[in-house]
Amino acid sequence: MASGVQVADEVVEEYKFIKKGKKYRYIVFHIKDEKKICIDSSGDRDACYQDYLDHLASLGPDECRYGLYDFEFEHACEGAADTKRSKLILMIWCPDTAKIKKKMLYSSSFDALKHSLEGIGKYIQATDMSEAAPECILEKIKSTARS
């Protein structure tokens, strides 16, 4: 079911910068006026995952967002030293405490965003901080990592 929410051009443009240029560590998107997915904020390359989580927490308990994060982690291939890998994750952040209408809008519009941003490594759904915790994300990434 299409929600009719459009993805703003800026979203796709800036996505190229995080994917190729490594301009940002993360970009947070929101749905503006129930019509368009727009950029809400972004974090520089030196931002860490905690900065991203702090931003989500600062929005309050009833705000939903999408977060694109360039997640770096150590990955050991068999018989090789640990190598730093990075994977782009796209998170839908819908706290349990958010209004049902808002959660439905974000859920139904997630596909539009997924289709606009090609080459995402992992999709994550989080309803609270424990689901968004770095070790939880890492586990999800590694469960599908190709060695």
From TrEMBL:
GO terms for biological process: actin filament depolymerization. One of its GO terms (cellular component) is actin cytoskeleton. Keywords: Actin-binding. PANTHER family: COFILIN-RELATED. Coiled coil: none annotated. CDD domains: ADF_cofilin_like. Residues 4-142 form the ADF-H domain. The gene is LOC108667271. It holds the Pfam family Cofilin_ADF. This is Cofilin/actin-depolymerizing factor homolog. It comes from the Eukaryota. GO terms for molecular function: actin binding. Belongs to the actin-binding proteins ADF family. It comes from Hyalella azteca (Amphipod).
